[in-house]
Specification:
The structure holds three protein chains of three kinds. Chain A is an alpha/beta fold. Helices cover about 40% and strands about 25% of the residues of chain A. In chain A, the strands form two sheets. In chain A, strands 6-7-8-3-9-10 form a six-stranded mixed sheet, sandwiched between helices. Chain A is globular, with a radius of gyration of 17 Å. By secondary structure, chain B is an all-alpha fold. Chain B has a single domain (about 25-330), classed as Orthogonal Bundle (ABC transporter involved in vitamin B12 uptake, BtuC), CATH 1.10.3470. Helix content of chain B is about 75%, strand content about 0%. Chain B contains 14 helices and two strands; from the N terminus they run H-H-H-H-H-H-H-E-E-H-H-H-H-H-H-H. Chain C has one domain: ABC transporter involved in vitamin B12 uptake, BtuC (Orthogonal Bundle), CATH 1.10.3470. Chain C has a two-stranded antiparallel ribbon. Chain C starts with a helix and ends with a helix. Classes of the chains: A alpha/beta, B mainly alpha, C mainly alpha. Chains in contact: A-B, B-C. Chains B and C meet through helix 6, helix 7, helix 12 and helix 14 of B and helix 7, helix 13 and helix 15 of C.
Chain lengths: ~230, ~350, ~350
């Protein structure tokens, strides 16, 4: 479904990604893990179209989408929940969600999707008219993910959902991702919380200094010596 | 959380807090001043305030919108007002002359609206041209020091527009005696010309449509979304270029419409845009940069301030008193009476 | 000049090197010196020795001096003083009124007039420069308009639009001595402001202009330096205004119009922001172009402002470095070409 071929990308003169390649099949739940500054967020931003790669190809559903701007990748079915969330802070939860369905013209479908995400995150339903800027950290994450799935994406990319969250809320978020995966959505998850991530995902890629150094089924990665030493502290 | 609490609080508490806020105090004072002045000198004070206030509101909200969404401090905003009054003049005046010879009740009723509507369209078109021809190339080249660069660009544009108008159409005043050649209406002892009444109704209706558009349609929400988080807007699939052009078109169109509607009060001439520009900036700084809904209230407050100073203190001091007022405001509340929506009034 | 240093045949420092070094410390390059010399002998060379052309030269030098002062603020701390002309006018009216009412010598008045301009500038700065740059621009504009309104309406004092006749600096009808006075004032402005730019203050200005956060993090108080810069600019504007008052001999509120500020702003930008000298160099050919146009095309009033505006827009979009950047690139290109 998504294939990344030899991507080189970065910010201005600073190159972050060096020949990164990986593949995701439909319905997979993929983890992208690695230390700080390894280029995980940059990878997601490049796929989403926020950054233009210097070279390499991004193939999505058989189409080459390299360099397509972010508003168009969203229309193709890629949804990106960024680390900074990029919520519309002076709008209510409800309005944020409506905007999440910006590319859907059908009003009925928009409302169906809102019902779906309210089922997924009941906390949001209770605060539907509250401004996004006044929400707690956990609620913001939920809102960002909820907004991300409002457009019925075929691929959902989530950047660091657990960052700064209490453990219980982190579990809530992961549970929600699990539900989405069961509904058939393909998910690419970037996380620093390597242990939990590798327990819930199918396969994983380990990124270090802008390069993919390891890949394989998540279970095997959990057993891998390098992963154990570097991320799990065993 | 805060909002929930606020909703559960008794109305009196909320009302009290609002009354203690800068915005509440100002609105209360303005209403009291308006009433006293009306009792003292007659209802024309209220009429003048409301008629010009509505148009200042249209003018200021456009300026505020462009600053909020595109981060452009537009110093060519007055020129949109001018383009509006020029368009209305050139559309309406021939019709007026024609109607003098060939009276037709239907055409006489329609002609002013035609002039004003065309002014809106021409203004909106100018806005789009400006975005595509000038701001878009600059945005692509560099966004460093964007606010200052775009400010200087608009200064340049303003100079070019003013002097081109002077070169092409000369410096003489282009005005009309009135849009509707009808006797003024009598209402509770107040004489109100139909032109003024129409301008008032037009501004109220336009404000209502604008409010509905911004709050209740996806496109309007997208405009607000771009103002609040550009990356977020891109990520939900909003086409930034379209929204920026639309914003500019709306802002320019509304200013042009204000210019056209007030043609019977302010004739068109090359530098006629300076006064509206001053007013719009004054309102925006007074209520808070980028705060679009407050700009509407601000339009009325400033109109009242102008009416009062010119009536009680005399023309000429019109420029001095408001400046003194805004200096006091900046000392105590630099983010504006109703708070700025743009992040960081203080230099970051 | 560099070639001397490279060949190094003598141990003694040649006199020309000494002069270059001395001028360099004033911020004048050899080419700059050449231009100044040309400027100084210009009033004796036909056709420039005619009185009406000498008037253009005086206007050009006055505009050049204003452009230098304007760039000192916009080019370094990124603040646009949109009421610049009004500050100039404040200095002019102060000096003019003192001469008319108290008989103060214009030679002293010029300097006294700078003080209220600087004071109003200081207050404006204190009020707005802790806020975003746009507040300073808008407030300076408002205050400028208020001053314009006052001069128009306090007819008892300023004689309003009828104009205030002021004594001139010199008892002569020739423009030539005035030209030398204003060129001296222009050079003084340039040298002083350049000294400031190359001092500790200049470093702070540049740090603030580039990145306010980083500047604050390294212990610079941005508000202090911005207010200092702004006040100094207003001081010089007021001083130049004094020359205006006692050169033209008549003052009208027109001097404070926003379009005058726009003229200075356009010249400073087309000349090249952050260079100080760019606007000054550009001002001379510009005045000649525009005065030439104006005297040949009287049917088209305002054409010169269209040219200012269009050039400003074009420079801003396509060549933000202005003439100074063009010159620097060209001279680098020539240097490398010569070395080959």
């Amino acid at each position: 479904m998504l294939e990344i071929k030899n991507i080189n990308a970065g910010y201005g003169y600073l190159q972050v990604l060096w020949d990164v390649s990986f593949k995701i099949s439909k319905g997979e739940f993929i983890a992208l893990v690695g230390p700080n500054g390894a280029g995980k967020s940059t990878t997601l931003k490049t796929i989403a179209g926020l950054i233009k790669p210097k070279s390499g190809d991004i193939i999505f559903d058989g189409k080459n989408i390299t360099g397509t701007p972010a508003n168009l990748t969203n229309r193709m079915g890629i949804s990106f929940v960024s680390e900074s969330l990029n919520l519309f802070t002076n709008m209510s939860i409800y309005e944020n969600l409506l905007l999440g369905a910006f590319i859907i013209e059908d009003k009925q479908k928009q409302l169906e999707n809102i019902d779906f995400v309210f089922d997924l995150f009941p906390r949001l339903k209770a605060r539907r008219n509250q401004l996004a800027g006044t929400l707690s950290g956990g609620e913001r994450k939920m809102l960002a993910i909820a907004r991300g799935i409002m457009s019925n994406p075929s691929l959902l990319m989530v950047d660091e959902p657990s960052l700064g969250l209490a453990p219980r809320l982190t579990l809530d978020v992961f549970d929600a991702l699990e539900v989405l995966r069961q509904s058939g959505m393909t998910i690419l998850l970037v996380e620093q919380n390597v242990n939990t991530t590798l327990h819930i995902t199918d396969r994983g890629y380990v990124l270090e200094q802008g390069q993919v150094i390891l890949e394989g089924p998540s279970r095997e990665l959990l057993e891998n010596d390098h992963v154990k030493k570097a991320f799990l502290g065993i | 959380m805060k909002e929930e609490k606020l909703l559960k609080e008794p109305f009196l508490v909320v009302f009290k807090r609002w009354m203690m806020s800068a915005g509440g105090i100002t609105i209360t004072l303005a209403v009291v001043a308006a009433i006293i002045a009306t009792i003292d000198s007659g209802p024309f004070i209220i009429v003048n305030t409301v008629v010009t206030g509505g148009m200042w509101a249209l003018l200021s909200l456009g300026l505020s919108l462009v600053f909020g969404v595109m981060n452009i401090p537009n110093f060519a905003h007055g020129e949109f007002f001018l383009i509006g009054s020029m368009t209305a003049y050139f559309v309406f005046n021939p019709m007026r002359l024609y109607l003098n010879d060939n009276p037709s009740a239907f055409l006489s009723a329609i002609a002013p609206f035609l002039g004003i509507f065309l002014a809106f369209l021409v203004g909106a078109l100018m806005g789009i041209i400006m975005e595509k021809l000038i701001f878009s190339p600059l945005r692509k080249r560099s966004r460093d020091q964007w606010v200052m660069n775009s400010f200087l660009l608009t200064v340049g544009i303003s100079v070019v527009i003013i002097n081109n108008i002077q070169l092409i159409w000369g410096a003489n005043f282009k005005g009309i005696p009135s849009y509707w050649n009808v006797d003024p209406l009598e209402f509770l002892g107040v004489r109100l010309s139909v032109d003024r009444l129409a301008a008032l109704l037009l501004s109220v209706i336009t404000l209502a449509i604008f409010w509905y558009f911004m709050r209740r349609t996806q496109t309007g929400r997208a405009v607000r979304a771009v103002a609040q988080d550009e990356t977020g807007a891109l990520l939900v699939g909003i086409n930034l270029n379209k929204i920026l052009s639309l914003t500019m078109a709306l802002s320019a169109g509304l200013a042009a419409m204000a210019g056209a509607s007030l043609l019977f009060m302010f004739p068109a001439y090359p530098t006629a845009g300076l006064k509206p520009l001053y007013v719009a900036w004054y309102v925006v700084i007074l209520v808070g940069l980028g705060n679009v809904s407050a700009a509407v209230i601000g339009g009325f407050i400033v109109a009242l301030l102008q009416t009062l100073t010119s009536y009680y203190i005399g023309t000429g001091w019109e420029d001095v008193i408001p400046t003194a007022v805004i200096i006091i405001m900046l000392i105590f509340k630099p983010s504006g009476l109703f708070g700025s929506v743009v992040k960081g009034v203080h230099e970051q | 000049m560099k070639d001397n240093a490279y060949t190094g045949t003598t141990n003694k420092i040649s006199i020309s090197d000494q002069i270059t070094a001395a001028l360099g410390s004033l911020g004048i390059t050899p080419i700059g010196l050449l231009l100044i010399i040309v400027l100084l002998i210009l009033p004796f060379i036909p056709p420039f020795n005619q009185e009406h052309i000498l008037r253009w030269l005086v206007s050009a030098a006055l505009l050049a001096a204003q452009a230098i002062a304007f760039d000192f603020t916009t080019g370094y701390i990124n603040v646009v003083n949109f009421g610049f002309a009004a500050f100039l006018g404040l200095g002019a009216y102060t000096s003019g009124l003192l001469a008319v009412n108290l008989g103060l010598s214009p030679w002293i008045g010029i300097f006294v007039g700078a003080i209220p301009a600087a004071l109003v500038g200081l207050l404006t700065g204190l009020l707005t420069l802790k806020l975003r740059g746009i507040f300073a621009a808008v407030m300076a504009w408002f205050i400028g308009l208020a001053m314009l309104g006052l001069t128009r309406n306090l007819v008892d004092i300023t004689r309003g639009p009828m104009g205030l006749s002021t004594p001139t600096l010199l008892d002569t009808s020739s423009n030539r001595p005035y030209f030398y006075i204003i060129v001296a004032m222009m050079l003084f402005t340039y040298i002083v402001l350049r000294k400031v730019i190359h001092s500790r203050y200049g470093l702070a200005f540049r740090a603030i202009g580039q990145n306010m956060d980083a500047a604050r993090a390294s212990g610079i108080n941005p508000t202090y330096y911005r207010v200092f810069n702004f006040t100094l600019q207003c001081l010089i504007a007021g001083w130049l205004g004094g020359f205006y008052a006692h050169y033209f001999g008549i003052l009208t509120p027109q001097i404070m119009l926003t379009s005058r500020t726009v003229e200075v702003l356009a010249i400073a930008y087309i000349g090249g922001r952050g260079s100080l000298w760019g606007g000054a160099v550009i001002a001379f050919p510009f005045i000649f172009l525009i005065e030439g146009l104006r005297s040949n095309l009287t049917a088209l009033p305002g054409l010169h402002l269209v040219i200012y505006g269009l050039l400003l827009v074009l420079v801003m979009i396509f060549y933000p470095g202005g003439f100074a950047e063009f010159y620097n690139k060209a001279s680098n290109w020539v240097k490398t070409a010569m070395r080959k």
